[in-house]
Amino acid sequence: MPSKEEKIIIPNSGEEEIPVPLDPHSQPELTRLDLKRRPCLIDIDKAKRFLSARTFVIAALVGLAVLLGLVAQAKGVTAGLILRLAVYGVMLGSIIALGAIGLSLVYGVLRFANFCHGELLTVGAYIALGLMGVLPRGEPLRPFSFGWEFLVAMVAAMGITGAVAYGLHWALFRHLRRRGSSSAILAMSTLGAAFFIRSIIYLAWGPDFRFYYWGRPRPAWQLPLGVRFRPDQFFILCLAIGLVILLYLLLERTKMGKAMRATADNPELARITGIDTARVIRWTWMIGGGLAAAGGVLLGLDAQLRPEMGWWTLLPMFAAVILGGIGNPYGALAGGLIIGVAQQLSTAFIKTTYKPGVAFLIMILILLVRPQGLFGRRS
Amino acid sequence: MSAFLIKAALLGIPLGILIGRLLLARLHIGLWSWLLGVPLGLGLGLGLLWVIPSGILAYLISLVIMACIFSIISLGLNVQWGYTGLFNIGIAGFFAIGAFTSALFTKAMPTGVEAIYTKQAFGLQLPFLVGVLGAAIVSGIIAFLIGFPTLRLREDYLAIATIGIAEIIRLIFQSERWLANGPQPLRGIPRPLYCLFQDPPCEWLPKVVQGWLEPLEPTDYNFFYLLIVVLFVGLIYLAIERAIRSPWGRVLRAIREEETSTAMSGKNIFAFKMQSFVVGAMIMGIGGALYAHYMVSIDYAHFTPLYGTFIIWVMLMLGGSGNNRGAILGAFLIWGVWVGTTFLTDLINPLLEAISPALPARSPYLRYLLIAILLEAILLWRPQGILGEEKRVSVLFEEKR
After folding, report:
1. Interface test with A, best of B178, B270, B376, B381 (most A CBs within 10 A)
2. Which residues of B120-147 are buried (b: 16+ CB within 10 A; e: fewer)?
3. How many beta carbons lie within 10 A of that of residue B193, not counting itself?
4. Within a domain: residue A217?
5. Which chain B residue lies closest to A179 (C-alpha atoms)?
6. CB-based burial of residue B28 (10 Å sphere; 0-12 exposed, 13-18 middle, 19+ buried)?
7. What whole-number distance in Å separates Cα of residue A255 and Cα of residue B280?
8. Residue among A332, A326, A354, A330 nearest A342 (CA)
């Protein structure tokens, strides 16, 4: 008779397995499972686990980077260019991350894909532009190209965009959720909201480029290895890091943050534990909208403002969210940086217009290999 | 005189099909619905041609052609969303693929002066129907490639991936000059049987028929194209109606309602979702092909998320998802609103002028606003659309009245 240690492993939906002891006596003779493992050179289970593991994905990314490096050598791309692109990519990635963090929080807490999150970036950027038209114009705070009025406008735009985001929820998504609409219907309504917002921006500001400071010189610092970096870009990077630290403190140190994380993790459980989910939802939209507005303003500061800027950032943001695992703000941060750097580096090899394609490709790869994201758990 | 009769027939046949299929078929009089419908349609065609001034009639016909093309795409979306619950917001991608594929399949390689300003990867000069078929197939292949990583996952992933593929397809057609003339429009897409309306008419026709066609002007071509698109709408409508009331269609609806129980009944969810997604995309590709041959000149800018995707969603949601007649009705209504609002903006321009001098130039964006508000209103107050879903699930099951 088989020994009492033998058990059958039931694959769980999670990564842990539940061992269930088998009682050989309770089984009919003929149906008894053959529990003896046949000797095999490769342990298939182990190999499978290794393939789906995070280490594998990270190794694959490193491998890809090495491969790209070799191609770069062949194409005569210099290290200086790569470094320059990487630095710029980190900055761009931090902007994407600002949007992606909010997107991921909303996704986690409310359980639907918010296709108007890109438009929140646009709204933030244009509200800041509108406010700057009203505020008196001060001297530029050298070495930066902007003055104090820009900072005031940005902070105000963050607040207003947060309110706009919650306003959309209040006017639309709240009712649909109460009716128990499917997440696809909710996503469609966010898509409608996206077109709604964009058409308002088209009506109010027109389809052309806009700049926060038209024609103001934006000198760049010359760093070693031929890296050129504008003080504005340094500011963007610092502000993004600062906002992420603030968000970290909020999520980890305050009661509201804890409630938000709990809701993102498991909304039903959170509600049962007595968390005021309505309040959590309000804060999620405010924070998501505020961060998106900051991202939009910084994107506008780095390049220019266009009504489509948010729509074009939507795909990289979703890629970042999926890369980091839905509902995981830190994953979204890492995902945003990875996407930003990858997009920027790709311009050394392919046409600049295909930058969204790079984000898309990374997203599809991650969906194929590890759909729960680099840092996510299997749901 | 013969031109008048031919035009009346071209108008009358689609009308007859519509009357026969949609109105008289309801009376359950069998073949009589056709025997009565076609003469009625022909009579109506004659009447329309008699009464309506030719300029307005030509305008109406172009409107109906576009509405029919959108109906086809909306029908394709109905297979994916209405019956299977697949959330595809990258319709513009399949629309574009269909249009460009059929264009390249049927167009000749540019020669002479044209070759200087037109670049294209290939030009096969195949017949129109082969082009349409090619459009469907290529569209289906793209759908398969997108569906493969995403259809096993949560429904949002498909949405995100389709948004992505639509953008990338547009980017490719925008920046690859060698493929389909890059940012410049691809011109000179052949129209099917255009020679019927030229002077002299097609050489391969018997002399007698050529004589009949002689008085037709090239400007009358849309009468003929109307017939083509209506036939396509009709065939696709019938095919979907038939398929959706078959065991296959019932599995799709079951997946939409209760995925887990359907899986437990032994159905391969992934395979059925994939079939539905690919079939829907193929229909969208056909719509794109018909669009290309109608427009004659297409470029990447036609296939924006708004014009290529969003408006079609509003069409289906308005008409009623899960109802093929609703998909067609929605397409006609929304296209009517879309075109009608161009007149409206002319009317309200003085008002806009009073608010801000910059506004009248931006008034086209009011339509975007209107369509977006319309969608939200439908979602909030009438999520089932005008017609709602049809309950009948089998061809063998007669409606109880």
Report:
1. B376
2. beebeebebeebbbbbbebbbebbeebb
3. 15
4. yes
5. B380
6. exposed
7. 48
8. A354
For chain A, what is the domain count? Answer: 1
* Cα B67 from Cα B331, distance rounded (Å): 6
- On whether residue A66 sits in a domain, the answer given is no
For chain B, the residue count is 401
pTM: 0.86
A50-103: pLDDT as tens digits: 556 667 777 877 887 788 778 877 777 777 788 888 888 999 999 999 999 999
User: Are A96 and A319 contacting, i.e. CB atoms less than 8 angstroms apart?
Assistant: no
pLDDT in tens, A197-253: 999 999 999 888 999 988 777 777 877 777 778 888 889 999 999 999 999 999 999
Longest dimension (CA), chain B: 65
pLDDT of res. A4: 46
Domain encompassing residue A286: 99-310
pLDDT at B344 over 90: no
* Residue B168 to residue A360, Cβ atoms within 8 A: yes
- Tell me whether residue A150 is in a domain: yes
- State the Cα–Cα distance between residues A90 and B175, nearest whole angstrom: 26
On chain A, the residues whose CB falls within 8 A of the CB of B371 are: 195
Q: A interface mutation test: which of B84, B152, B165, B168 has the most A CBs within 10 A?
A: B168
Q: The tokens 């569209």 sit on which residue?
A: B139
Question: Chain A residue closest to B146 (CA)?
Answer: A364
